[in-house]
Design a protein that fits this description.
By secondary structure, this protein is α/β, with parallel strands linked by helices. The chain is built from 14 helices and nine strands. The chain folds into three domains: 109 residues, no CATH class; 67 residues, SH3 type barrels, CATH 2.30.30.140; 201 residues, P-loop containing nucleotide triphosphate hydrolases (Rossmann fold, 3-Layer(aba) Sandwich). The protein is globular. The termini are far apart.
């Protein structure tokens, strides 16, 4: 019971604590009030009623009025309370027994001999301790990793990229990558069937590769609708869909680098763009068993943002030169490329309206001039006036 309570408490706290996790203790009284006054799924009684024989009076009672209770002589209270508690506890025991049988039957239905095949994409359970952070409130799954081979029934060899070191892990630390990526709602109008006939309906004479995935990148200004568009492919069984990894920008060793970059671009723009290059490099090298890989943003458009911030004075010329040089080195050395660019063209004014309507906390101070410059640089990029490494 204590472990179950602790798990519920951690789920509650992880939903309300701030990014620095320093205010977790201020939320405990609110959790206790909610927990003690909520009907337990198994016992069908509130913890307060189980202990005292009556339910708590909540703030809502001030508006609706308390539930009327029958007054009794004071001499009968103790005996009535004892009888009421016995009835409640007997009822709770019956419910616990029924729930136990129900949970066992449900578990037996889902229990299966889970196996992964070489080439399957998986999550890896990799808990890490960080100074000043509560490990129980951290995100402990990382990936996707690719199954290299199965050593025995419960041990697998995996790797993250073609150049990364292989790891040998137990089956209990793995989870299907496709299953978790679909927990995010694909949006209306989607289904488990392919949205496109990838074999015969690709533009410009492009066709699926036999030895590697077809690589497609979704590009455009901030707030142009890239995420909404890309999410439509989450349910496509032939597509490995990679949304823009905002979580990796918001948690760099416990620091929200994305927010710092918007608040003080003169100081943090170089660090942020360098981090983006590392993240996008890993995503380009990500292996998948699916015939199509769709990425939101890429190494190529990263140079557009480098030039944007150089024009706005957030990056000095030598900083922009170093970032471009590093990008060109990675693209050439590892032969990074894409087969198709999908550019969502909208006006900077439309992007500005969309940004204000979605209200991401890091984007509250984005100026319209930034969006206009990003738009201009993207237009130059697509006409090959600026970026020398356009994919075919």
């Amino acid at each position: 019971m204590i472990e179950r309570l602790n798990r519920t408490l951690l789920q509650y706290l992880s939903s309300f604590v701030e990014q620095n996790q320093r205010d977790w203790d201020t939320w405990i009284p609110f959790f206790l009030l909610s927990y003690r006054s909520a009907i337990h799924e198994t016992t069908k009684q509130t913890p307060a009623c189980m202990l005292t024989g009556r339910n708590l009076r909540l703030p809502s009672d001030l508006e609706k009025g308390p539930v009327p209770v029958q007054t009794q002589p004071q001499t009968d209270y103790a005996s009535d309370l004892q009888q009421r508690l016995e009835e409640i506890h007997n009822f709770a025991r019956e419910r616990i027994s029924m729930a136990s049988d129900k949970l066992k039957a449900r578990y037996d239905i889902r229990a299966r001999d889970l196996k992964y095949n070489p080439g399957d994409s998986v999550w890896l359970f990799q808990p890490r301790r960080q100074k000043g952070k509560c490990p129980k409130l951290q995100r402990n799954w990382e990936g996707p990793y690719l199954i290299v081979n199965r050593i025995n029934d419960v041990v697998y060899r995996i790797r993250k990229t073609p150049h990364s070191k292989e790891k040998v892990v137990h089956l209990d630390r793995l989870a299907s990558f496709e299953e978790h990526t679909r927990t995010e709602s694909p949006g209306p109008g989607t289904s488990s069937q392919s949205l496109i006939d990838w074999e015969h309906n690709l533009p410009f004479g492009i066709s699926l590769h036999k030895k590697k995935s077809l690589s497609i990148i979704i590009e455009g200004n901030i707030g142009c609708g890239k995420t909404t568009f890309t999410k439509r492919f989450l349910s496509d069984p032939q597509v490995c869909t990679l949304l823009e990894p905002l979580d990796q920008y918001r948690d760099v060793a416990g620091v929200n680098l994305l927010q710092l970059m918007y608040e003080d671009p003169n100081r943090y723009c170089y660090q942020f763009q360098h981090h983006v290059q590392q993240v996008m490099y890993d995503r380009h090298l990500l292996l998948t068993s699916r015939p199509v890989k769709i990425m939101e943003r890429s190494m190529f458009s990263g140079d557009c943002f480098i030039e944007t911030h150089r024009r706005l004075g957030n990056l000095r010329d030598f900083e922009a030169h170093l970032l471009r040089k590093n990008s060109a080195l990675l693209i050439q050395a590892f032969q990074l490329g894409v087969d198709l660019i999908v550019y969502l063209r909208v006006s900077p004014e439309t992007s500005f309206v969309r940004i204000n309507s979605r209200a991401r906390k890091e984007e509250t101070e984005i100026p319209l001039q930034l969006l206009r410059t990003i738009h201009e640089v993207h237009e130059d990029w697509l006409e090959a006036f600026f970026l020398p490494y356009l994919p075919p």
